[in-house]
Amino acid sequence: MKFPEPYTLKQIATLIDSKFVGDDDFMVLGMNEIHVVEAGDIVFVDHPKYYDKALNSAATIILINKEVDCPEGKALLISDDPFRDFNKLTNVFKPFKASNSLISPSAKIGKNTTIQPNCFIGHNVVIGDNCVIHSNVSIYDDSIIGNNVTIHAGTVLGANAFYYKNRPDGYDRLLSGGRVVIENNVDVGAACTIDRGVTADTRICEGSKIDNQVQVGHDTVIGKKCLIASQVGIAGCVVIEDEVTIWGQVGITSGITIGKKAIISAKAGVSKSLEGGKSYFGIPADDFRSKYKEIASIRRIPEILEKLKNQEKNM
Questions:
Q1: In the annotation, is 35 catalytic?
Q2: Cys staple from 125: which of 27, 107, 270, 312, with CB 3.0 to 4.6 Å?
Q3: What pLDDT does residue 293 have?
């Protein structure tokens, strides 16, 4: 998330009432999660396990809960609760704004685009040309939709990221200030849910086709010309490269990459990154050759046990 204009380190520290290490006028351009940070961004870290990763990331401002040596060319914001203060900044720069109409006056809708009855189109939404948005679709604020896109009934674009911190009194939600971006020539089936990024974009790239009842988590990127069948669940921060095929009821864990032209068979459970150009199945998912060897070995277990039993009898 880039700020509408540059801020100084001192200004940001004042907004969240924190101490800081660095020049008063050190420039701050935005805020992002660690997997998408750039120079000028704030990243937050609140666990010693991830201090080094945050301090050595591309971010130049680190919101941290301990006074540490500041890397050269960077700045620190010292907070007793970085998670809370990251949320404060989201509320400042991307606050929730209630709507009072089904289609926001700030929405931009292209030529020859059809919006069926009972749709909700939020603030600052952009929808391109020759699109069809079927009934009861909800498109939350800031979503971007390209040309020649079809979205079927009951789909929701832009719900909050499923991202929580466990507090003694319950779960605290990390606020979502990112977007959903749907590129040209994408089809999205009925009753799908595509969550917005926390600070960046959840993106469906050009030409991909998504079946009914698919869940796409925050900040996930689905490449070009992918096919995703019904009831697939994709967690946050997943990268699915171009021309991947994912069949029904596959579950994919967060933060992994599925390589180009991979094929994942139905009901697979994907718990690690997978190379492109191969076919996978099973739980945990593995390529066909490895999985069939594994199954063949398992089927031999009764035979092996019987041989061991006979050997014991003959001893």
A1: no
A2: 107
A3: 82
